[in-house]
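Deliverable D4.2, example record:
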Amino acid sequence: MSAAFLGNIVEKDIHKSSLIATICFALGMAGTGCFIYYGGEHQGSPLALIGIYVSYGFVMGVGLGTGYLSPVKTLMLWFQDRKGLAAGLAVAGFGAAKAIASPIMQALLDNLGEGGIYKMFIILSVVYFVMMFIGHLLLAKPADWHEPQSKSERQSIISVLKTKPITNYIGIWVMFYINITCGLALISQEKMIVKCIGLASYVGIISTFSAVFNAGGRLGFSAWADTMKDRNTIYKLIFILSIVFTGLVLATSGIKNGNGSTMLTILVLALIFIVNAGYGGGFPNVPTLLSDHYGMGSISAIHGITLSAWAFAGLSGNQMAAWIVRTFGKAEEMEHVLSDGTVEMISVNPTGYQYVLYATIVLYIIALIVCLLLVRPTDKALEAKKNKASK
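Output generated by the structure prediction step:
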């Protein structure tokens, strides 16, 4: 939500916004560590709990949202002929950071001894501050780009959005929201689904592969969109692929019957990888699609408002999936052979995970309809169609 409210600051002054991002992210992380320490010394302290929410949720959230926006428009301005790829690089970095940071965090937790959690946050706050501050110093827009500064030059966001039918923007927001909601719904249950199909020993490896597809989708789909006359075609492809693979898993009851069937196991894994790629691919194509419709002048502010869809999807995707799994089906015990040969029993709910897919396929169909009916072709696509007709 900070991206939505601070988009105008990013628009006007990239150095101010990147400095705000640096300070808030590092300060929020350090504050989280301090309040964790305080909570350990004062068990049950409401102040510690509130402090963690304020530091980790609010202050770090402001740094995260503002920091997410800051490089995107800048990269798009530097590489206007390949702005999809440029935005994809920024967003892929955001996603791929998990693969780098997670093992580092785990190593810190394993080696810092007692109080490792709060020590980890404080150490990382310093590391992130240094890295982000260097980025802040280096970040610059092209010399030939001049932001409109006066009120007469700068249109309000509503005025910019009204240059196209408002249903056009609503359509972009809704399909972005649904793509993230469905992605989070499946990704949140991914490890349990993998266990259902008999691959409990490979959960870590499969999670790594799904992360690769996630990052690959951010780069691949956005770079591919640069070659298209209308970037909205990418969303149509994402939704169609997601519908097809979800439908195949539902039709074959792949999650329930996948254990012992190589074909169904491959099908379920393909669904996981496709959804991860589509979920990742939706992020970098939003700012480029918006810029194609509304121009570059106010893109950070419009992109920031559109990221509110991400905030709402973060509240609905995981919770929807968790509620479905709790409500439908029942837990079953499955044997899981550990690496040392011993057997442990794990509890899974294959029926519940199948019902999650029923919800996501309905949402994907709605998103495809919105994509086809509400989101208008870009001016570039209309011009290409007109030129083709004249020939």
